[in-house]
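Dear Dr. H.,

I hope your travels went smoothly. While you were away I took the liberty of generating a structure for the chain from your last submission, since the lab meeting agenda had it listed for discussion. I wanted you to have the full record in hand beforehand rather than looking at slides cold. The sequence, exactly as received, is reproduced here:
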Amino acid sequence: MAFLFRSKPKTDLVKTTKDFLYLLLQEPSSTKVKNDTTTAVSALKLALIGPEEHDVDSEVTEKWVNALIGQDVLFLMPRSMAYMDINGFVASQKILSFLIRWKPANYPGSTDTPVVKYMGDVRPEVIYWLCRGYDAHSTIPNRLPSHSGKVLREAIKFEIVAVTILYNQSYADQECASIKGSDMNMRQNGEGLFWQFFEWINKQTFEVAADCFNTFKDIITLHKQVAARFIMANFDLFFSKYHEKLVLSTSYVTKRQSIKLLGEILLDRANYEIMMKYVERGEYLKICMTLLKDDRKMVQYEAFHVFKVFVANPQKSDEVVKILLKNQSRLIRFLPTFLADRNDEDEQFRDEKNFLIRTVSVMADESNPFAFINRNPQGTKGM
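The corresponding predicted structure, in token form, is as follows:
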């Protein structure tokens, strides 16, 4: 049957695929429609990129791209993928990934590809539905373990896609609008597309949650200046959700990954303003100190790399100083034996821990001029 599709003109094959994709949205439970859709999509994949992706004729591919855009297949395919069988899904995934990467001959290397530009400027709904692939797992019975995360991460390599996800305020049942002309410094209400990732990570199966987290990570790390500006503009909302939904998640993997990512965010030079604002907050320090006592060593280890940013900051806020001083004696007793089994195998960890012990030990309450003398009866020179 695939050969019958391949023998038809390109425009006919594209239209046939479009019709089956649309029909699948209308009759998602129909086995016949699923099979026909898989046949059409597989034939399209074979005609477009062959059995294996290879160097294709640029002029011919450009005609395919124009036909797919003209028939709105790029929009229908992400919407329909949730209802496909595994073969149709994989074929669709390969088609979309190929189209996102493809550039005509002599195309400027540093610019968005034609399909990416189309998605960002004309059809942001394509990006929206690629993201909503994660949501399909909780709304469609017997959903396949596959999803559109691989395609989405391919697209997020381009800044316009990440910007669209971060700044588009569309959510379920709303039309997805272009972000052109949007105020990038305006505070958001937490109901837009990006904020749904916090929910999707938490309510999915292990495999889907892990994939969703990887996509989330790419959104806020691949394009550093864009992400830093977004987080600063939505600082309180971002970290409120980050702590509640990720750092304090009941899922061990989500908790560990999110604490590790938090440390990476704070220590990235592009996020200096974020780091300085974050380590001013006493409530954030309390969360971190609680994680140091977690039952799982890897959670403790990742929390340590966040804790050290608070302690090493030479311009600690009064709130942070107060908390550290209140827990000073306990920290001095706790830190030397903290993850002691890592001391021999991880020299950097050992050195950083010793630095924190020294730093906490010499802290004094500046509101009490005799505090340091009382704690060190013999005195210490050089302070």
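Two observations you may find useful: The chain has 23 helices and no strands. Residues 31-49 form the longest helix (19 residues).

With kind regards,
E. W.
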